[in-house]
């Protein structure tokens, strides 16, 4: 008989429910995104959105997957890292569902899930992963039982940097067109490269000085917005590309995986593809529905963990706001 896992994602602005089979077939991946008028995430407002969206999203997932709640073998939820109120809402829903159905619960690390669904969706086996989203900027690879962090941001995430700039510029995000995509569109019409702070310290990156500088230039009004978008992208993307390339050269891995919401950006894709080629590595971008925060990745990682005997008793299912990628044992990877 086929076995199924339902996964709940709620680390930030998205509430999502995925259902996958134990063999790795994604049957449903329903995402309900919270968007505020002015952009940005207000954790408590987002959590309220999640609480309201939960019922409908779960229902839709079961309808799409064509299975019944009683068919589930295990329930997974994103246990961290993320925003407290958002994580707690998802965890509460997961606990209630698991207790009611009397099935085991598995707490999943959100960053591990991004990597695992990327491997499932693109068939890469042992990549250097560049994970760039609204909340994270991490270059990682597997080594000795864990995903090790080779480089990361010291302050804000790359996606957040693009989002705040867009907001300062008075841009609007629409359904299907997040701030990063709006910046990308304007950047494609940019011609002049304006000098901006480029900050790579060792293998770590900093985006806050860059953000301040580009916002200051914006307010001075001397440059076209298109040129500022272009310069911001070129500078920020070069930073993550440099760190990814060094991790690639150091580890001599043969695959590069690009994931997270910012992975949708064509310019970033071409920069990472170029360094992959130079090192004879295969380059893969995670398809959008699995690159954004989504429930399927939590469900799939739940399956991998559960198959290796990992379960999270309800009394230990408290959320972990700062649960680092490199603290998670991943016994399913060899
Ligand atoms: P996530 O945190 O994974 O849900 O991804 C959301 C982030 O991805 C936000 O910061 C978005 O602005 C960003 N994003 C989405 N599409 C693009 C794009 N085409 N270019 C750059 N950033 C993007
Ligand atoms: Mg999101």
SSE sequence, one letter per element? EEEHEHEHEEEHHEEHHEHEHH
Strand content: 15-25%
Structural class: alpha/beta
How many independent structural domains? 2
Fourth CATH level, the homologous superfamily of the largest domain: ATPase, nucleotide binding domain
What layout of secondary structure does this protein have?
Elements: E1 4-9, E2 14-21, E3 26-33, H1 43-65, E4 72-80, H2 84-101, E5 105-109, H3 110-122, E6 128-132, E7 137-143, E8 146-152, H4 158-168, H5 179-187, E9 200-201, E10 204-205, H6 208-220, H7 225-251, E11 255-259, H8 266-278, E12 282-285, H9 288-291, H10 295-307
Parallel strand pairs: 1-4, 4-5, 6-11, 11-12
Antiparallel strand pairs: 1-2, 2-3, 6-7, 7-8, 9-10
Helix pairs in contact: 1-2, 3-10, 4-5, 4-6, 5-7, 6-7, 7-8
The structure holds adenosine monophosphate (AMP) and magnesium ion.
Residues 12-14, 134, 261, 292-293 line the site of magnesium ion.
What attributes characterize this protein structure?
alpha/beta; Nucleotidyltransferase, domain 5; five-stranded mixed sheet; 12 strands; globular; binds adenosine monophosphate
